[in-house]
Design a protein that fits this description.
about 350 residues, alpha/beta, about 30% helix, about 25% strand
């Protein structure tokens, strides 16, 4: 059976930095072919024009599909599903699909759509990523320009024009597998940490809350989370069940940024004896050191197969993928990825124990 194509749903209010995050992702895709579906009915073509061509072979203009008939959560059947079918009918399939919702789209109906027979056998929701305007939320506004949000909300008769932004924000947080607190360069260190702590408390267990400037995050942090969100809808409760609005987004500040707020390193250790016990050891190390991602391979004593290990947060998946090649070293090599400041010595000691 063919492996399902992973899809990431990126949501967040107008101005939070979704488009900037996606542009940075495409510029650092490392050869991964990414298809984009952009929902921007309120300001036609802006995000699409920003993104077209920026990924070259990674994401050509043909790989960018725009939905402009209304908020994506209101037009799943007539707009989103046909677009997905058209994308999946191509001879050359994408490695990953990224969906940028309109700013006030409820993510839950969109995730639910991945259970439709037309796409459920071919695509899975890798994760829901909610981008937060750190400065606006700290100031209690949720969006940096509330008037612009309200103006866009009025453009679609299907949208809920009355629900407070705070409730729509809660829906986006409730559905998230990762929350990106963007524009942290506009906050003090104490403000940023307080907001991260608050969002961790408001989100589900295991959801990563990470800081970013200009949406710059390593692609290995954003993609490949393997959540399968469409199978976990009960945990992603909606605060309300009314459709709503808003669109697109582009960061409007110009601070320098980069991926140096994150770090990765390789830990090598001898072969392991008990994969199940080692998975528990990995999960414990991840929790104690707030590791974002851990992946690699292990040799298991007495086994001729290589063990693949992948962890997103404390969830660890492991499976034997192929026979060990003659002359291949019987060792364990793990790549550890996290925010800058990881205690490398302590992590190495914990994984080597």
């Amino acid at each position: 059976m063919a492996q399902k194509i992973p899809a990431s749903v990126i949501t967040g209010f107008l101005g939070s930095g979704k488009t900037t995050l996606i542009r940075d992702m495409l510029a650092n895709a490392n050869g991964k072919r990414i298809a984009l579906i952009i929902n921007e009915f309120g300001d036609l073509g802006v995000d699409g024009d920003i993104l077209k061509g920026c990924g070259d072979a990674t994401c050509s203009e043909d790989d960018i599909m725009e939905l402009s008939n209304g908020c994506i959560c209101c037009t799943v059947a007539e707009d989103f599903i046909p677009t997905m079918q058209k994308l999946l009918a191509r001879d050359i399939k994408p490695d990953h699909i990224v969906i940028e919702t309109s700013g006030l789209a409820l993510p839950q109906p969109l995730v639910r759509a991945f259970n439709w027979p037309e796409i459920s056998t071919q695509v899975t929701v890798d994760s829901v990523i909610t981008v937060v305007d750190g400065k606006a939320v700290t100031e209690g506004r949720f969006a940096h320009d509330v008037a612009a949000v309200d103006a866009q909300r009025s453009l679609d008769d299907n949208l809920d024009h009355e629900t407070p932004l705070s409730e729509l924000f809660e829906d986006q947080i409730a559905c998230a597998d990762m929350i990106v607190v963007n524009k942290t360069d506009l906050l003090s260190g104490a403000e940023a940490e307080a907001l991260v702590a608050r969002l961790r408390g408001d989100s589900r267990a295991g959801v990563h809350v990470i800081k970013a400037t200009m949406g710059a995050l390593p692609i290995d942090v954003l993609l490949g989370q393997g959540v399968g969100a469409e199978h976990d809808l009960d945990a992603r409760h909606e605060v309300h069940h009314h459709h709503h609005d808003d669109d697109g987004d582009e960061d409007d500040h110009h601070h320098e940024h980069g991926h140096d707020e994150f770090e990765s390193f390789v830990v090598t250790r001898p072969e392991i004896t008990d994969p199940a016990a080692f998975a528990i050891q990995l999960a414990d190390t991840i929790r104690r050191h707030d590791i974002l991602r851990l992946k690699g391979f292990a040799a298991v004593a007495g086994k001729p197969m290589r063990l693949t290990l992948q962890a997103v947060g404390p969830r660890v998946d492991c499976y034997f993928d192929r026979p060990l090649i003659a002359g291949e070293r019987r060792e364990t090599r793990l790549v550890v990825i996290g925010e800058a400041g990881l205690d490398r010595a302590a992590i190495e000691a914990a994984l080597a124990a």
